[in-house]
Write the structure tokens for this entry.
Amino acid sequence: MSVKIKPITDHESYKVNEHTIFKDRLGNWNCSNDLSKKERLAFNRYESILIQNPRFKKHTTATYKG
């Protein structure tokens, strides 16, 4: 199963497969549905590589296979 992550609004909301994950007022990532373990791991990796990296001004779509 591959996990596709697509930015909706950089630093605020992303589409992880068919789920929308967003940052709440406290700065925590939330999703109305439970993400699978692979989806959570892929998003955590995406966050550490792209979202938290100040050199990336525009985030890109990423696909994680596994």
Summary: The two ends are 6 Å apart (CA to CA).
